[in-house]
């Protein structure tokens, strides 16, 4: 069985789950311009963030990274994460268990 959808069909904000089962957790992140997600962690995971559209400032611990549409960031969920949308932005994030704390 194949389930075909579009990124726009994932309507919940800021996080829309792609799969019912959350391993690996896959979400669509939709942020309005100037919206920030507070610092948080996802221990025991490796994260891939693919910015589909917009521009994000991604804070990981005390480091800031500027992401543009098409950029792919890979990082540990053990880091403190806080994305900030410079402009309206949409991304897909995959949280893969590392097996250490998952």
TrEMBL record:
SUPFAM superfamilies: RmlC-like cupins. Gene3D superfamilies: Jelly Rolls. Residues 31-80 form the Cupin type-2 domain. This is Cupin 2 conserved barrel domain protein. It comes from Halococcus saccharolyticus DSM 5350. The lineage of its organism: Archaea, Methanobacteriati, Methanobacteriota, Stenosarchaea group, Halobacteria.
């Amino acid at each position: 069985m194949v389930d075909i959808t579009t990124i726009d069909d994932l309507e919940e904000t800021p996080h829309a789950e792609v799969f019912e089962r959350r391993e690996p957790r896959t979400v669509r992140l939709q942020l309005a311009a100037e919206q920030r997600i507070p610092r948080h962690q996802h221990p025991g995971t490796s994260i891939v963030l693919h910015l589909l559209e917009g521009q994000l400032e991604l804070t990981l611990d005390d480091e800031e990274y500027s992401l543009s549409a098409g950029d792919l960031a890979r990082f540990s969920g053990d880091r403190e994460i806080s994305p900030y949308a410079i402009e309206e932005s949409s991304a897909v994030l995959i949280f893969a268990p590392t097996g250490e704390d998952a």
